[in-house]
Amino acid sequence: EAPGTEQELTDGFHLVIDALKLNGIDTVYGVPGIPITDLGRMAQAEGIRVLSFRHEQNAGYAASIAGFLTKRPGVCLTVSAPGFLNGLTALAHATTNCFPMILISGSSEREIVDLQQGDYEEMDQLAIAKPLCKAAFRVLHAQDIGIGLARAIRAAVSGRPGGVYLDLPAKLFGQVMDAAAGEKSLVKVIDAAPEQIPSPSSVKRALDVLKSAKRPLIILGKGAAYAQADEAIKNFVEKSGVPFLPMSMAKGLLPDLHPQCAGAARSTVLKEADVVMLIGARLNWLLSHGKGKTWGEAPKKFIQVDIEPKEMDSNVEIVAPVVGDIGSCVSAFLDAMGANWSAAPSDWLATVAKKRDDNVAKMAPKLMSNASPMDYHGALGALRAIIAERPDTIFVNEGANTLDLARGVVDMHKPRKRLDVGTWGVMGIGMGYSIAAAVETGLPVLAVEGDSAFGFSGMEVETICRYKLPICVVIFNNDGIYRGTDVNSAGDDPATTVFVKGSRYDKMMEAFGGVGVNATSPDELKRAVNAALDSGKPTLINAVIDPAAGSESGRIGNLNPQSVLKKK
Ligand code: OXT
Ligand code: ADP
Ligand code: MG
Question: In whole angstroms, what is the distance from residue 325 CA to residue 333 CA?
Fold first, then answer.
C-alpha cells in the first residue's frame, strides 16, 4: 500500500446490508437489541425499511406473510436466545404453510456457547432451529456473508417454499475486510425459484383421468394462490368447465361468485366427486386426509399438482401426480387440452349449482339480521357488503367462530386478498399479517379478529399507529374463547374460556393516537369500517357480539377429545 492512501474497509454490518439490498430485500421485520440494534439502524440508514415490532413472533408472522404475498423471502431480525425463540414459532409456521421466510438472529460467542459457560443469552440456536425449518446456516466469517445469504434465499424460495434460519454471531458484525474484496464476495442469486416443468407424460395422464370423470372437482389451495399464475389458473378452470372448491386462502383466486365456484356446496362436492384434481392443496386435516365420511362412499381418483414430489401419496393414492410449479403445470394442461375439450357433464354442474344456490339462499336472511347485540351473521353481513364494494381490501381473519363463519360469509373477489390462520389454525397471526399486508401491498387492510385471537398480538396496535398504516381492526367481542357464557361452578375464579365482560378494546387504540369505535349494531359497524377505509387511519372497532352466539371450537368442535368418564 502506498503511503498516504488509506485502504477502504467494510465490515460485517455493511456486508449483511449490502447482501440484502443486492438481492432486492428492501424490508425487514424485527425487534432490536444486542447484538443487532446497530444492524437495524444502519440498514434503515441505507434505505431498507426496518419495521420495529413489540414482539418477535408478530414480526415473524409479518415476514412469513410478506413471503406469501411477494414470492420473495420475508425477513425477520431478532436478538439471541429469547428473541430467537420468539421468532422461531413464526419460522416453523412459515415452513408448515410453505411460505418463504428467513429468520436472521444474532447469537452469542460460539466459543462460550459451545463450552456452555453461560454467555449473555446463550443458546445453540442453529441446532434448535434445524428441525423446524427447511434449512439452517451459520456465518462465521465476514467474507462468507454473501454466500450465507444467497444460500438462505435460494433455500427459502426454491422448490416447496419454507422457512430458513440464518445465524449471525455477534462477533461477525464487527469483522473488517477490504471493501473491494467484500463487494466481490457478495452473491446476487440468479433465478432463485427456477421454473419446474412437468413431464409431458404426467400432464397427459392427468388430463386423461380428468376427461374420464363424470363428476370432476378442482380444489385450489394456497399454493395456487402463492404461485401468482392467476390468469393461467382461471383459463384452465374455465376451459375445463369443472367446478372448483377454494381452500380458505385460495378464495378469490377465481371470484367466489364465479358460476363454477362450489365453495357453498362443499360437503356435496367432496362426497360426490369421482375425480378430484388438487392444485397447490395438501390432503391434510383440512381435507380430512382424503378419506372417511367427508369423502363419501363412491371411489375417487386423485390428481395432484404440486412442486413437492414427496407430497404425492401422503394420505391416499394419487393416480396422476403432476410435479412442477403450478404456473408451468397449468400452462401445460392448457396447451395439451387443445381446442375441443368438452366441458364437465352438465347434470353434475346442475347438481353442484343447485346445492350451492340452496345454501346461499338459506344463509341470506341471517345476513340481514340487525340484532343488537350482534350475532356473527349480522356483523359479517355488513362486512361482506363492504368487501364486495372494496374488493382490493386485504382481509385478515382469525378466531374460531369469527374465522369459520367469516370464511363462508365474506366472499373474496380477487387473488391473495384473504389471509388467515393457515395449516396450523394458529392464533396470533392477526396484527403481524395486517402490518406486512399493508406494507408490502400498499392496500387497505381489514382484520376481523376474535377477541381471544386478537389478544395474541394485540400490543402491535401501537406498531400500527406508529407507522400510520391503513389498517382497520374489527374485534368480534363475545367475551371469550368460542363463547362468553361459561361459568366455573367450583370456585370464584372465572371459567377458563371467558374474559372480562364488556371489555372495550377500542380504548387500546386511542391510547396510541388511533381511532377507536364501539359498535353495537351492524349499521354502526358498517359506518365505522367504511370511515376507517376511507380515511386510511389506524382504527380499532370493538364489535359487541352476543356472548351466546358462538359454538365450541367453531366448525371443528369434532376435533375435541371427549372424556369417557361420567361426571359423578
Ligand atoms: O356444504 P355444507 O352444507 O357442509 O356447508 C358448508 C359450505 O358449503 C357452506 N358455505 C356457504 N353457504 C352459503 N353461502 C356461502 N357463501 C357459503 N360458503 C360456504 O358453509 C358450510 C361450511 O363451509 P366451510 O367453512 O367451507 O366448510 P367446513 O366444513 O367448515 O370446512 C372444514 C375446514 C376444516 C376446511 C374448515 O372448517 C376450516 O378451514 N377450518 C379451520 C379451522 C381453524 O383453523 N380454526 C382455528 C383454530 S380453533 C382453536 O384451536 C382455537 N384456539 C386454540 C389455540 C390456537 N388455535 N392457537 C394458539 C396459538 N393457541 C391456542 C383458540 C385460543 S380458536 C381460539 C380462540 C377462539 O376465540 P375467539 O374469541 O378468537 O373467537 P370466537 O370463536 O369468535 O370467540
Ligand atoms: P391449503 O391449506 O390451501 O390446502 P396447503 O398449504 O396444504 O394449501 O398446500 C399448498 C401446497 O402447494 C404445498 O403442498 C406446496 O408444496 C405447494 N406449492 C406451493 N407453491 C407452489 C408452486 N409454486 N407450484 C406448485 N406447488 C406449490
Ligand atoms: Mg371470542
Answer: 12
